[in-house]
Specification:
The structure holds two protein chains of two kinds. By secondary structure, chain A is mostly helical. Chain A is built from twelve helices and two strands, in the order H-H-H-H-E-E-H-H-H-H-H-H-H-H. In chain A, strands 1-2 form a two-stranded antiparallel sheet. In chain A, a hairpin with a 2-residue loop joins strand 1 and strand 2. In chain A, helix 10 packs antiparallel against helix 11. The longest helix of chain A has 32 residues. The termini of chain A are far apart. In chain A, 49% of the residues are buried. Chain B is mostly helical. Chain B has 14 helices and four strands. In chain B, helix 2 packs antiparallel against helix 9 and helix 3 crosses helix 9. The chains are: A mainly alpha, B mainly alpha. At the A-B interface, helix 4, helix 9 and helix 11 of A face helix 5, helix 10 and helix 13 of B.
Chain lengths: 286, 342
């Protein structure tokens, strides 16, 4: 019994940490600029593709994993500077616009991949054992990285002056501008940071999933629900939301038929959002 | 936003009826011109059916500001129901199945509207948009894993649509059936958006809060138009599955939903003929390019670029070049001479 619980918690933790990385980026952009970035799934894909390209060129795979957040982050800067800033006025137009961007990225990568599924081998294959149970080393590494990223972002937001400016703009963008904070530049930085997190997530999960052009959409829908579930405008909210979705996605197949479990996750999440539109955190604070 | 060039008073109120008449005439003679090529007739019929879906989306977005990323859900579910009725009940008479498809579309979209739009708290636009997206995505996943409805392969060799003793295969007869249904739906939609009901919708688009303060139950109006749009999507889905003889998970997911978004925005959302024009242009170009291997591969990329350009630079779409802004917003009810409360 205890083995089952440990096994189960590890699975949830591994799945959740991937979601957290994706959702953190999505949530940061949504809270800061009010934009729901429909291209986020494709940014994950772009990160995964970067690793694939680096591995194909014969270089060390770690180089690819390091390069992915940088490449996607720079791409994010470019996107925000050229296109995304047109969308700050109207969130619905932003959805359409970012969807179009996502479509372009996805189809270009599909063309480059030639429509095949590709796979990237795990940099650290194998497993470690404890209490007679074996755990995948790579998944453990993902969990560790995620925790590091969360703690890092948290310290950055709460302990640095740049983080203070970010929190200030989040609270009241108009007042922040009046105080001489360039929200313009802050928005670029935020978008790039969100994109880089997506890139990192893509790089970390590509050894686990097969690389295909359609891998982004699934994460996108789950990511959105997590952000809504946790509450837009907070740091902890999306993380909690991702944990809830992750637990549902990992736990439901044990309870109902797998065919039903998959769509049911979305339905349950949607119902919770309907009943609690302000999210877990925002509600608790008020 | 660029204002349309044609804002001179002389042209106000002229362009749309002209375009509508031209489109109708072209649609009427098309089979005669396309002559013996069955492939082109099939393409034309497809365009008519998808136009219906595009109009359905535009009723939501262009007329009432509901961003629906799930219009294909109603399309797909109605298509599946029709296919299953044909397979398991051996029934495909038009008098029964087409109304059934409309009822399925109406009911399902009403349930969605009731969940997403109605309730004590006013939902955010984002929640509605994500709700429709999630619904379509979840339905696609469910269907692609469900053996009873053919799982990932979908349902093929669907029983042909019957009119009395006649079985309709794809060809001119099916084309004219689709055209007739599209025309009826178009006129009905035109009547609705130009009625007093449409005036409320137009007011909501301009300033939803103000309408709410006037005492209109804004969300109820939205739910109504969303359900009507679902009815149209259901009809389109039934026609599609009869025409193709096939319906699959891909016909109900976010993919087709966003294609409908593209049709409507490209043609010109906020008008009824715009989605038809958009569907026609995109499907025709796509058909022509299908032979060019070099371009075909990147056609979806081009579509993405087109969508981006339309969204950023030309929100009124192709029709924005021909139709003035005032005409797109439209006039409502009777003229003031014979007007007055009914």
């Amino acid at each position: 019994m205890i083995e089952f619980i440990v096994r189960f918690s590890f699975d949830i933790l591994a799945f959740t940490s991937v979601m957290v990385l994706i959702v953190l980026g999505l949530g940061v952009i949504a809270s800061m600029m009010g934009i729901f970035n429909f291209a986020h799934g494709e940014l994950v894909l772009l990160g995964a593709y970067t690793v694939f390209v680096v591995e194909q060129s014969g270089a060390n795979i770690w180089l690819g994993i390091l390069a992915a957040p940088l490449v996607v982050g720079l791409f994010g800067v470019l996107l925000e500077r050229t296109i995304i800033r047109h969308f700050y006025e109207s969130p619905v137009i932003a959805m359409l616009g970012t969807y179009a961007i996502g479509l372009i990225i996805r189809e270009v990568i599909r063309g480059l991949l030639g429509g095949h599924y590709r796979s990237v081998s795990e940099p650290w294959p194998g497993a470690w054992t404890a209490m007679g149970l074996s755990f995948s080393i790579w998944r453990t590494f993902i969990i560790g990285t995620t925790i590091a990223v969360i703690v890092g972002s948290w310290l950055f937001l709460t302990r640095t002056s740049f983080g203070l400016r970010i929190r200030g703009s989040l609270e009241n963008a108009m007042l922040a501008r009046a105080c001489g904070i360039s929200t313009d530049r802050l928005y670029t930085a935020t978008f790039a940071f969100g994109a880089a997190l997506a890139g990192l997530a893509g790089a970390l999960i590509v050894p686990l999933y097969q690389l295909s052009a359609d891998m982004g959409l699934r994460f996108l829908v789950q990511g959105f629900l997590s952000v809504m579930l946790g509450g837009v405008g907070t740091f902890e909210g999306p993380v909690l939301g991702a944990a809830a979705i992750g637990a549902l996605a990992a736990g439901l197949p044990w309870a109902v038929l797998p065919v039903l479990a998959d769509p049911l996750v979305f339905v349950i999440a949607l119902v919770i959002v309907k009943l609690r539109p302000q999210g877990f955190i925002a509600g608790a604070r008020k | 936003m660029t204002t349309p060039a044609s804002s001179s008073p002389a042209r106000i109120g002229r362009a749309l009826p002209t375009i509508e008449t031209l489109a109708l005439l072209a649609a009427l003679v098309a089979p005669l011109l396309l002559g013996e090529s069955p492939e082109l007739i099939t393409l034309a019929t497809n365009i008519l059916i998808l136009s219906l879906l595009a109009i359905s989306f535009d009723l939501c977005w262009g007329y009432s500001g509901i961003m629906s990323f799930g219009q294909a859900l109603f399309f797909g579910v109605a298509g599946y129901v029709i296919a299953l009725v044909g397979r398991d009940l051996e029934f495909s008479h038009a008098w029964g199945t087409l109304p059934l498809a409309m009822a399925v579309g109406l009911l399902l979209s009403f349930l969605f509207a009731a969940f997403l739009l109605l309730g004590r708290r006013t939902p955010t636009v984002i929640f509605v948009a994500l709700g429709t997206l999630t619904g379509a995505y979840a339905a696609e996943r469910l269907v692609s894993g469900w053996q009873y409805v053919g799982a990932g392969n979908g349902l093929s060799s669907i029983k042909l649509l019957q009119f009395g003793e006649i079985e309709l295969v794809e060809g001119p007869a099916f084309y004219y059936l689709a055209l007739a249904l599209l025309l009826v739906c178009y006129l009905a939609a035109r009547y609705i958006v130009r009625s007093q009901f449409g005036l409320v919708l137009a007011g909501m688009r301009q300033n939803e809060e103000r309408l709410a303060f006037f005492g209109y139950r804004v969300q109820v109006f939205k739910a109504l138009i969303f359900s009507l749009a679902g009815l149209l999507a259901g009809l389109a889905g039934a026609l599609f599955s009869y025409h193709q003889g096939f319906i699959g998970p891909g016909n109900m997911g976010p993919g087709l939903s966003t294609t409908a978004v593209l049709y409507a925005l490209f043609g010109g959302s906020g008008t009824l003929i715009g989605p038809v024009v958009g569907t026609f242009l995109i499907e025709t170009i796509s058909y022509v390019l299908a032979d060019q291997d070099a371009i075909k591969q990147y056609w979806p990329v081009i579509l993405g670029v087109v969508l981006l350009v339309v969204v950023v630079f030309k929100p009124s779409g192709i029709l924005g070049f021909f139709v003035s802004r005032r005409e797109r917003i439209g006039s409502y009810g009777g003229r003031s001479a014979k007007g007055g409360p009914r």
